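Protein modeling request. Please complete all fields; requests missing the sequence field cannot be processed.
Requester role: graduate student
Desired output: 3D structure, token encoding
Chains: 1
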Amino acid sequence: MNDLYLKYEYHNFLTGKLSDFTGLFAFPYFFSCFFPKKIKPIYIFSGILFVIWKSQYSQPIFDFVNSIGIGIHRTVDYTDLVALLILPISYLYWNSKSHQFIQTKKYLNPLIIGICCFAFVATSVPNKEGALNLKSNYQIEVESDLVKARATGLIYFSLENDKYISMLKIPEKNAEIELSLIIQEKEKGLLNIKLDSILTYFVEGSTLIFSGGVDEDDVNDIKQMTVKDFEKIFTEQKIKPLIKK
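Delivered output (245 residues):
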């Protein structure tokens, strides 16, 4: 839930580290269930593997597997190593009697193992971003106001001096496009909307490591789109809903 939802809805320090703590607690515990006589080596190896995974020294491995179509993604962030503090707690929990409190039926074990495996290979969505920096002359006046503009999703967030950020979605390319707008309220209830620039693209990949990550064809298609293409999508997604409001 944290990787697939909470990180994007509530992005903060807690959601950024939660998966590392829970994953590092569960990963050695899970394999210790299969090799109960190798608990110490499993926990030691898990810590070493986590450090390598989070460091830049593992980048050649990521480059290689991505080149053969396996989309493994991670962010190098050495503050994530604070999650190593959970390893002794997991180890102590394994050696305590607490883990014996929950008894499952044998027929449920394959389901539990399947859920665990999915959790280990599922990760936060890999993405690729880049600058577009396309200028636009698109401008329109509509009978509306800033309240309605926010309600219909025209405004993503405000900057200053009548400048705003808006976001377009291109679902078929798993992409979002960041736009800069200049919006001014005129007399007689008119709203002057100028699409100033098409700034940046964000293309998402899959959450499963064996699905290939970010599709480079989607990235290339976005890069090849013209200003007119973006203006057309902007009209459909942002202006028409505002007019109908």
